[in-house]
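Hi support team,

I submitted a single chain yesterday and got back a structure, but I'm not sure I'm reading the token output correctly. Could someone confirm the output below corresponds to the sequence I sent? I've pasted both exactly as they appear in my results page.

Thanks,
R.
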Amino acid sequence: MLTKYNLLIIFFVFSHTAELFAQDYTYNPQKTAILLVDPYNEFLSEGGLLYPLSKETLEANNAISNMKELVSSARKSGVKVIYVPHHHFSEGDYDDWKFSRGSGRAFPVGTWNVEYHPDLQMQQGDIEARQHWQSSGFANTDLDFLLKQHGIDHVVLAGMRANTCIESTARYAVELGYHTTMLTDAVGAFNMKEMKAAIEIDYPVIANSVLSTEQFISSID
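Hi R., thanks for writing in. Yes, this is the structure output for that exact sequence:
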């Protein structure tokens, strides 16, 4: 019979698994990719529809600067940078869906809102996956195919939003057999409660490693 004490021990072990396995781990640049999820102006720039919701956590995390440092260091080290964009909304997109659960009127096609943040523009050698409709960057896209074609088996997640697209993409990556790293300070959310729950409770259970941006960069072999 499980006691309350036993349950606490079990929870502690599971929630700290990622931290235990992250110790002294190094990343082979040829087998590692950054998955930069939804780095749109819509989330990250003044004037974006979702920026007022994201602003608090972005500033608390210094998230945009950390994303910029992450992709810059990755490129210099030979780590592939893959952009994982959300679907761009057009009128009527969800009208005939059996179970509609789109993103409202966010991410309107052909607008500044769905351009990547000025500090996070794609560079020569980067890859862009097909747009995902819901939360996972893998579901109904070519992301898994692209990773396999480039011999990548380690993925590192950053971008938006910590508790939705980042979590969903990470869970899918783990199910597909990728070594999955989640970064604590290169993500944002709509409030600090979301951020705290994602990083402190969910990430350690989902991921192989949970690191800061600086810790990951220093672990590139």
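A quick pointer for reading it: The first helix runs from residue 4 to 15. Let us know if anything else looks off.

Best,
Support desk
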